[in-house]
Design goal:
Helices cover about 35% and strands about 20% of the residues. By secondary structure, it is α/β, with parallel strands linked by helices. The chain has two domains: about 1-65, Ubiquitin-associated (UBA) domain (Helicase, Ruva Protein, domain 3); about 75-275, Rossmann fold (3-Layer(aba) Sandwich). Helix 2 runs antiparallel to helix 4 and helix 6 (about 95-105) runs parallel beside helix 7. The N and C termini lie far apart (about 70 Å). The structure holds glutamine. Glutamine binds near residues 90, 185, 189 and 195.
C-alpha cells in the first residue's frame, strides 16, 4: 500500500511530457480517488486502496505516453461550464474564451439574439454564449456526428436549454435564416506545421485542426458564405493562429466586411479577428 504523498511523488515521471507534472499527478490521483485536490493536500498520509492505486498507475502510464489530461479525466472546464470531452473533438482551450467575451460584447444590447457557432466540437463556445442569456437562441453545428452528440450531452449536463446542435458541413444544412452573430473556431493549422507532432494535438482529430491554403481555407469558405446568413450590421468572429491576423483581416475586407479588427488572447497573441457585415 502507498500513501497519497508517496503517489504524488511520481510527478517526476511526467516531467518529460508535461509542463505541469505536479498538477497532472494531482488531477489523476484525485480522479482515481473520486476526490478533489484539496483532499490530497489535507490527507497526505492516507493509504490508497490497491484498486485505486491500480487505476492511478494506468492513468499515469497513459499520461506518460502523451495522452492529454482532458482525455484521461473525460472533462475540461471552459468559461463557467464543465464540459465532457473525448477524442472525437478538439479539447476546449482557455484562449478560446476570448471569442466568447467578444461575442457577449457584441450581443450586449440585443434582447433576442440569434447566434451560430460553426464547428462547435464539444459545444464550448455555443454553450458558453447561451449560458449568459436564456433569451438568446444559439445554434451549433459540426461535421462530425459524435461531436453533435457530445455537444448535446454537454448542454443537458450544464442545464442549458437555449442551445441546439445539428450536423452540417459548414453552412450546407443550416436553415436559411439571418443571425446576429456567427462565431467559429475552425481548423486553421497548416498541414506541415511542426506543432502538429507535439503535445495534446497529436490526440485530437486532424479534421478539427488542419485546413488547406496555409490553414486559411475554412476561414475563407465561411467568410464567403456567411453574408447570406447575417443580418445587416451583424458580426462574424474567428479564432485563428497568432501569425494569421493580417491574412484574416485582408480576407474579411476583400469580402466586403467593415470595422475589421484583431484582438489578442490572454497570452498576448493575435487570436481573434472580427468583421461586420455591411448591408448592400
Ligand atoms: N489553437 C489550437 C492549437 O494550436 C488549434 C485550434 C484550431 O485549429 N482551431 O493547438
Amino acid at each position: 500500500m502507498s500513501s497519497i504523498a508517496e503517489l504524488l511523488a511520481s510527478r517526476s515521471s511526467l516531467a518529460a511530457v508535461s509542463d505541469t507534472p505536479g498538477l497532472d499527478v494531482e488531477l489523476l490521483l484525485a480522479h482515481s480517488l473520486e476526490q478533489n485536490r484539496t483532499y490530497l493536500k489535507t490527507w497526505p498520509e492516507r493509504e490508497v486502496s490497491a484498486a485505486q492505486q491500480q487505476q492511478f498507475q494506468t492513468l499515469l502510464q497513459r499520461r506518460q505516453a502523451g495522452e492529454p489530461i482532458a482525455h484521461l479525466l473525460g472533462s475540461r472546464g471552459f468559461w463557467t461550464l464543465d464540459l465532457q470531452v473525448n477524442p472525437s473533438t478538439l479539447i476546449p482551450r482557455p484562449e478560446t474564451e476570448l471569442l466568447v467575451e467578444i461575442a457577449l460584447e457584441k450581443l450586449a444590447a440585443k434582447p433576442n439574439a440569434l447566434v451560430l457557432d460553426l464547428g462547435t466540437g464539444t459545444g464550448a463556445i455555443a454553450l458558453a454564449i447561451a449560458s449568459e442569456n436564456s433569451l438568446w437562441q444559439v445554434l451549433g453545428c459540426d461535421l462530425q456526428r459524435e461531436a453533435v452528440a457530445l455537444a448535446e450531452r454537454n448542454g443537458r449536463l450544464n442545464k442549458i436549454n437555449n442551445a441546439k446542435f445539428l450536423q452540417s458541413d459548414w453552412f450546407t444544412d443550416i436553415p436559411k435564416q439571418q443571425f446576429d452573430l456567427i462565431v467559429s473556431n475552425p481548423p486553421y493549422i497548416d498541414a506541415n506545421d511542426p506543432h502538429l507532432s507535439e503535445g495534446d494535438v497529436r490526440f485530437e482529430p486532424r479534421s478539427a485542426l488542419v485546413a488547406g491554403k496555409q490553414g486559411l481555407a475554412d476561414i475563407e469558405h465561411i467568410s464567403v458564405q456567411a453574408p447570406a446568413y447575417l443580418k445587416p450590421g451583424a458580426w462574424l468572429l474567428f479564432e485563428h493562429g497568432y501569425e494569421q491576423a493580417e491574412a484574416v483581416r485582408a480576407l474579411l475586407k476583400a469580402h466586403g466586411y467593415v470595422a475589421v479588427a484583431t484582438l489578442k488572447d490572454i497570452a498576448g497573441m493575435d487570436r481573434v479577428t472580427l468583421g461586420q457585415y455591411a448591408a448592400a
